[in-house]
Write a structure and sequence with these properties.
The protein is of the alpha+beta class. The protein has 1 helix and 7 strands; from the N terminus they run αβββββββ. It has a single domain, classed as Sandwich (Immunoglobulin-like), CATH 2.60.40.
């Protein structure tokens, strides 16, 4: 029982060390308000909603904090925006290990 508990605690601690918070700036270069951003890991099926609060109005640059960004190797993602009229943007390729800003365009 103690061994299992130690492994569970160690695994949780290791995962916490590997996870990190990143910040990036998103500029809305469209005529629509962005209501949702979703990140899709390149080559995987993981879709992560990114919190944008009340949205990002046209022409505005907003700072987004991704508190659950995973290991260092998970750098390449595609980000897609959903607009207030329900349409989706074209996907934007982002390397979160190198890029700290990108734009959503029509």
């Amino acid at each position: 029982m103690r061994t299992f508990l130690f492994i569970a605690i160690f695994a949780g601690f290791t995962t916490a060390l590997l996870a990190r918070e990143i910040q990036f700036d998103v500029t809305n270069e469209t005529a629509q308000k962005i209501t949702t951003l979703t990140a899709l890991e390149k080559g995987a099926n993981r879709r992560i909603p990114l919190f944008v609060g009340k949205g990002i109005k046209p022409g505005i640059t907003a700072t987004v904090v991704w508190a659950t960004f995973a290991e260092e190797g998970d750098c390449l993602w595609t980000v897609q925006a959903k607009f207030e009229n329900g349409t989706l943007s074209k996907p934007v390729a982002v390397d979160f290990c190198k890029q700290k800003e990108f734009s959503i365009k029509e």
